[in-house]
Amino acid sequence: MVAIPSTYKAYVYKQYGAPADVLQIQEDVPQRPLQPSEVELECAVYGEGTVFPVKIARDAKVNALQKAIFDDQRYHERFSFPSSALTLYLARKNGAWLKDDRSVKNFLQAGKSAEYEEEMRPSWKLDDEELFGDDFEPGDKEIHILVELPSQQRGVEEATSHDSAMVFDFAMAFDFAMAFGFRLMALGD
């Protein structure tokens, strides 16, 4: 049980008409348990630096994993590409999985790494020996899948930030002109 702050208690009482003391908050909300036929893979996204788990059937195809990642990260809300446009790589080098340590965020934000080029083809099955095999058991602080977003989406993000910078520069120039009394010429003058 977690202690409930008094400001929250007052809010709950005001909103719902019941004292918040009757609420019980659990710190660990139980998730759906893994089935023997499922595995939880840790995924990380190049460029973004995010790391998240995805539960999937051990014998699923890579295209099902693409769809699970696409849905989990809600890419359809931010971008306009299909789940099949995600490129997935095994986060394994010389038989060892990428460690999820303090430096992994910077590593991911730097973009695609030449160290992890083992691309996973959509028609392959996760339990194939060249991917995870039948007896795969994830370890602690391991990343298993590296996700690369389509290149045109990265370009859109870069263009958006570039456009924002141009608008900011224009606003700064306008403020400067107004502050020092410069006359701005309208188009056609």
UniProtKB/TrEMBL annotation:
Q: Reply yes or no: does the keyword Secreted apply.
A: yes
Which Pfam families does the entry mention?
Crinkler
GO cellular component terms given for this protein: extracellular region; host cell
Assigned keywords, A-Z: Secreted
Residue ranges annotated for the Crinkler effector protein N-terminal domain, each copy included: 39-148
Localization recorded for this chain is: Host cell; Secreted
Q: Which InterPro entries match?
A: Crinkler_N (IPR045379)
> Which protein, by its recorded name, is this?
Crinkler effector protein N-terminal domain-containing protein
Q: Name its species.
A: Pythium insidiosum
